[in-house]
Amino acid sequence: MSSGPAPKDRQTGEIRLKAYVGALAAFAVALAASWAYWYGAEFDVRILAGTAVFAGLVLASFALSVRIGEHTVMGTWDVWLALAVIALGPTWASLVALPTALFVGQRDWLRTAYDLSQNVITVHLAGAVFSLASTPLLLAGPADAVVCYGALAASATLVIANEATGAGLLKVKYGQPFGEAWEENWRPYLPSDAVNVLTVGLGVLAFVTYGPLAAAVAVAGSMGSRALVQRSQDKVREIGELRARVSSLEETLSVSNVTFGAMIVRDLGRRDGFTDRHAAATAVYAADLASEMGMDDARAGRLRLVGLLHNVGLLGLPEELLLATGKPNSIAQSRLAEHPARGEEALAAVPEFGEMASWVRWHHERPDGRGYPDKLRGPWIPQEAKILAVAQAYAALVLDGPSRPGVTPAEAREKLGAGTDTEFDGVVVRALLRILDTESEGYRMADDHRFVFPAPGGWRAASDAPTDRRVGGGARSLPEERSRG
After folding, report:
1. What is the DSSP letter of 250?
2. Which residues contact 480 (CB under 8 A, 6 or more apart)?
3. Of 481, 417, 485, 483, the residue nearest 174 (C-alpha)
4. Mean pLDDT over residues 69-93, rounded?
5. CA dist., res. 206 & res. 218, Å (int)
6. Other CB atoms within 10 A of residue 26 CB
7. Which of 152, 265, 444, 482 could be 72's S-S partner, Cβ–Cβ 3.0 to 4.6 Å?
8. Any idea which fold 7-210 has?
9. d(C-alpha 231, C-alpha 224), whole Å
10. Average pLDDT, stretch 355-378?
11. How would residue 368 be classed by pLDDT, with cut points 50, 70 and 90?
12. Cα–Cα distances in angstroms (integers) from residue 412 to residues 391, 433, 434, 445, in the given order
């Protein structure tokens, strides 16, 4: 059993990480020294004030970042860093990033060194690109449109440099290939990076055209809109996750309720030797009738399920009434006639069973209007209830019941035929007769392997299965985490 990398592997990885951070630090020092040598460092009160403002904005952006993965967080500090480079120059922009590097490192010198080195590299590369278009804006004179193009190029350079150094960190620290880094950490966030670049361009355009206040309003408005969009996306995702959980809970509730109902039917069958066998036969005949009459597999599956549960309303009736062997008197008949409505009430408690509950309520209605409990006439009875009525009646005829033996299939056919268009729907009766003509004697007697009451859990899969009678039915990287601006 593995408990993680071996000590030697961890030691090697630590050496490689330190070497990588050391190389970045050396490159950062070389860039900073070269820039200072060639361009110097302008000092101005405006520069000092701007450094303090941008440092606070970058630090606040990182503190308010959002975690989006095991090693990844998202924020907007890249926008402020790019604007700092454009307004102050890379030397002062490096100082802008210092408080954030110290905050990220939290007395971990390796993390601090990495973050500071990364920022020095990225801001100097971005500054080199922007220098082709203008000097830092706080020190420059009147600017033209070229500055805006330079700002876009500089901010794009900063983003790309951050991604490149971050990919190197992921490769060294976590062994993640560059192709995988592209797929997981770059490509999904290209739109976000593009928005950052455009925000910088918009801010510079507003600065050049209308002044610093307009630039601040433009950048703040753009970032605020982005934050609202991100917040909306988060809410949509949370709502989707909540709906999935609710759906899962409803499914669990449905399974639990119907499993309980199936257990009730099975228990009644143990007592009277009939109810469970009658339910299993009704389920098979109802599903086969649905298929014969052109209903889709989903509808047939639901009829199979409701066939198993159509007599669940018998729960709670006195046992002596259920097991009586003689002809029931008027009071007993009245009590027995309650079971369709009681069954509907039980099934309707599960939201997804509302329609099936109505089929259970009306499975003893008759085309001539003499059924119960609502005395509906033919056109008002759902087709599924008509199918259920014929299926359960035929099953009741051929199976041995508590008070009488079953009849032969031929006698059952005669009784169904005699009740056509009065007690039973004629279209459904003729469909059942067609099925019986093509099936085995075991099917006609409801006593082959297809008519076994399903085991717990098996009824649900059967209800969903097709019926077939032939077979029986903006980026920066840290040593401990990857973050995106």
Report:
1. H
2. 71, 111
3. 481
4. 76
5. 7
6. 11
7. 482
8. Arp2/3 complex 21 kDa subunit ARPC3 (1.10.1760)
9. 10
10. 92
11. very high
12. 12, 10, 14, 10
* Chain-centroid distance, C-alpha 86: 43
What pTM does this model have?
0.48
CATH topology of domain 257-453: Hypothetical protein af1432 (1.10.3210)
Residue whose C-alpha is closest to residue 464's, from 454, 474, 478: 454
Task: Count how many residues are written for the chain.
Answer: 485
Give the 3-state secondary structure of residue 483: strand
**According to the model, what pLDDT value does residue 224 have?**
58
Residue 441: CB atoms within 10 Å: 9
pLDDT given for residue 325 in this prediction = 58
Residue with tokens 């770059």: 186
Cα–Cα distance measured from residue 236 to residue 374, given in angstroms and rounded to the nearest whole number: 45
Spatial distance between the Cα atoms of 172 and 21, rounded to a whole number of angstroms: 10
Q: Which two tokens stand for residue 290?
A: 């649905």
- Which one-letter DSSP state was computed for residue 378? G
The C-alpha atoms of residue 16 and residue 23 are separated, in whole angstroms, by 10
Dig out the tokens for 50 from the structure.
Answer: 């701007």
Query: Coil, strand, or helix at residue 206?
Result: helix
CA-based nearest residue to 462, from 275, 300, 274: 300
Distances (CA, A) of 164 to 102, 180, 477: 22, 13, 9
> Which residues on adjacent β-strands are paired with residue 483?
73, 476
Residue of 84, 212, 97 whose CA lies nearest to 136: 84
